[in-house]
UniProtKB/TrEMBL annotation, chains A, B:
Highest taxon listed in the record's lineage: Bacteria
One Pfam family in the UniProt entry: NUDIX
Ranges of residues in domain Nudix hydrolase: 8-142
Name under which the protein is recorded: Nudix hydrolase domain-containing protein
SUPFAM superfamilies xrefs: Nudix, Winged helix' DNA-binding domain
Length: 223, 223
DNA sequence: TCAAAAGTGTTCATGATACACCCATGT
DNA sequence: ACATGGGTGTATCATGAACACTTTTGA
């Protein structure tokens, strides 16, 4: 069809990483501003071609550490987009991942190769390059579904947190309010979190701090 | 690392299709016997490289029609396997799909390029090539999870079927018996199936025939 | 008349939902 | 003393689980 898609015996393989974090009461995505032509001024999810000696997952981790300076985050394969004409540069098959990082320690790395790199609220996205609008909405869908039956929110919270913090994360992702008593009853009944040492003071009554029992993916019925 | 993995600027992209069907009270997978060297005599899921002008999904459908003579089946992307050394022939990134086909009309196509092509019960698999043991168990896991909250079993049944047929499909996939009354109550309460015209006679009391309300993927809580 | 699968309701246990007040702290 | 978020229990409702007998047909 297109000239460029005939050019390679094999398609190019890339990864795209949808990085989510919660900040200022909002769910945000990390985006990079494009400098090159057909998408100049558009924004894209961090990504790039894989190297011949790295696995897909290694490539995704490399993107995370190169573009956002992040290691040890929750990372899950999302979907592989393989339409013929999705990339104007040629035939690129791209595997999307999504990553969750805690609100603390959000340090995007700017580089000369790309324009700006910034966080955007998911309800307020800029013009997106490629099929990245689809990629992000697919990631949002998956995230919303998976917080209901796995412990992946551990990726969005700091090591210690209050039950109110945890509840807020759920409310933000699901875009709806939850009942405080029912939420706490449920969470405390399923061995998801355990009390941490101290309490956190604020301007008001200090709250008990908790941490996750396991900081590794597992399946639990939560909602 | 390996010589062959350095040879291409881009990895090769392939698809593998795990084809499930139910036959003779068993869940079966379609496998092809390998003729070429390192895996001679081993069996593999149907698959192959994509062409430069077809999407991943088109490639998967092409495999289905070439290897099994099948069209219009339920097909879902499963996972993309991107380890560096998963294929001894070189760097191949492979997207696995899984397909569901009704027990009727199982007509595997033999070809000169491959050895035998046959159905195997999933509890009784032969020696498998590549990482196809993983691929199949991943597909089984997904299938078992998804029949609980979607209508995908429509892909495994003929156009008309009895409620007992439907229940058997669930029992086979989940490897456990279900209560007949509870199963029927649930199924009939969720607008999944509707009565079809006739009844089916057998050696015994004839059963009411049903068909699916929608023959297209959708989400419904079933179990 | 017998064998084999079809069909049908009720009870009980469990989990989900709805709901309102007092507490501890900093200012 | 007041404003702010932290923390707690009960009653009701809906859903899932367990369970056994009668019916229809062909042989």
């Amino acid at each position: 069809m297109k000239k460029s898609s005939q050019k390679y015996k094999f398609a190019a393989v890339a990864v795209d990483v949808v990085v989510f974090s919660i900040d200022n009461g909002e769910l945000k995505v990390l985006l990079i501003e494009m400098k090159k032509k057909p998408y100049m001024g558009f924004w894209a999810v961090p990504g790039g071609l894989i190297k011949s000696d790295e696995s897909l997952e290694q490539a995704a981790k490399r993107q995370l550490s190169a573009k956002a300076g992040l290691k040890n985050v929750y990372l899950e394969q999302l979907y592989t987009f393989g339409e013929v004409n999705r990339d104007p540069f040629g035939r690129v098959v791209s595997t999307a991942y999504f990553a969750l990082i805690p609100s603390t320690g959000i340090k995007p790395k700017t580089s000369r190769e790309y324009g700006d790199i910034r966080w955007f609220g998911v309800k307020n996205l800029p013009r997106l390059a490629y099929d990245h609008k689809n990629v992000i909405s697919y990631a949002l869908e998956r995230l919303g579904a998976k917080i209901g039956y796995t412990n992946i929110v551990y990726g969005l919270l700091p090591r210690e947190f209050t039950l109110s913090d945890l509840q807020k994360v759920y409310e933000i992702i699901l875009s709806k309010k939850l009942d405080k008593r029912n939420f706490r009853k449920k969470v405390l009944s399923i061995n998801l979190v355990k009390p941490a040492s101290a309490k956190r003071g604020g301007a008001h009554r200090p709250a008990r701090l908790y941490k996750f029992v396991k900081n590794r993916y597992h399946v639990v019925e939560i909602l």
